[in-house]
Model the fold of this input.
Amino acid sequence: MSMIRDLRAAVRPSRVSLRKDSGAYDTTRDPATASAVVDCAVYRDGARVETDTPLGPHQAMRQVRRDGGFVWIGLHEPTEDEFAGIAREFGLHPLAVEDAVQAHQRPKLERYDDSLFTVFKTIHYVDHDELTANSEVVETGEVMCFTGRDFFITVRHGGQGSLRALRHRLQEDPELLLKGPSAVLHAIADHVVDGYIAVADAVQDDIDEVETEVFSPGRKGSPRGTDAGRIYQLKREVLEFKRAVSPLLRPMQLLSERPMRLIDPEIQKYFRDVADHVARVQEQVVGFDELLNSILQANLAQASVAQNEDMRKITSWAAIIAVPTMVCGVYGMNFDYMPETHWKFGYPLVLSITVGLCLGIHRTLKRNGWL
Done:
C-alpha cells in the first residue's frame, strides 16, 4: 500500500476552473512531426529509459521483450496505414483497431485475449463572453487505450485532452510506474473524469445565469424572459456532455469490481474512486437536463402569459374605443329626424355621455387588472 499511498496526488493535479486554465488542454501533435506517434518510451523499474535517439514502436517493443519493463506509445489521429504496423507488432484485435482509427465511439471497455481496449470521451469547456443561441459550450475528443502485459497504447482524436502533462507527472512517481500499464490506465481514467468535474462546474455557472435571467423581473414587474434558443442550445450541449459521461460508469465499475489479470490488484481498488466520481458527474448532468427542461417550460409559459396580457390590453382598449365608434356611427347617418339633432345641447350631451362611458369602462377594466 505504501507504493500507491499517494496515487491520487501523483496523477491528479489541483483542480482549477477551466475558464482560467487553458493549459490543462494541450494542442495536438507537433506540426513538425510527420508521424502520428507523439511519444514512445520504455519504462523499466519505474523510470523512463533514456536513449540517444527517439525510439520507434518496434524498437521499443524489442527492447522490452529483451530487458523487461513496458512500453507506452502515444498517437494522435493515426491513419489506418500508420496504425497497421503497430497493431501487428502488439497483436491488437482487428475490431479494436478499427474503432481506434475511425473514432466516434461511445465510452466502453472491451476485453480481448491479451489486452483491454478502453474508450474515453474527453470534454473541454469552451469559453464564451456571452451565451447565445449558437454558442459552443463543450467540445469533445476521444482517448482510446490498449492495455497489455508489457505495453500501453493511447490513441487520441480531437484537439483536446493532451496526455503530455500526465505522462510527466507519472514519470515523477517511480513507485507508481512500477505497477505497470494498469497504473497508467487508472491515471488516464482519473485525469479524464477530473476534467468532467471541472466542466460540470463551469456548465453549472451557465445554467445559473440563464435561470437567473428567466426568473428575474423585467420592466414594470413583468417577467423579462430570455431567448428560448439559448436555453435549447445549452440543453443540446448538456446532452453531448451526458453522452460522454453516462456510458463510462459501467466500464469503471467493471474495472473496480471484477478481477482482471491485466489490472494490478492494488491499482484495481482505486478504480472504485473513479467510478464514484463518474456517478457523481452523471447525477449532475442528469440534473442539468431536468433543470433546463423546467427552465425552458417556464420561459415558454412566461412568453404565453406575456402574450395573454398583451391581448387583454388590446381587447380592453378596443372595448373603450367601441363606445365613441358606435355613437359616431349612429349620429353620422344622414337622417332628417334624429333625437337631439337640432337641439343646441344635443352635441355636448352626447359627447359627455360618450366620455363618461369611456371613463367608466376604463376604470372597471383597470380595477379588474386588464389595464
Observations:
- Strands lie at 37-44, 47-48, 70-76, 108-111, 116-125, 138-147, 151-157.
- The chain is about 55% helix and 15% strand.
- The chain has a mean pLDDT of 81.
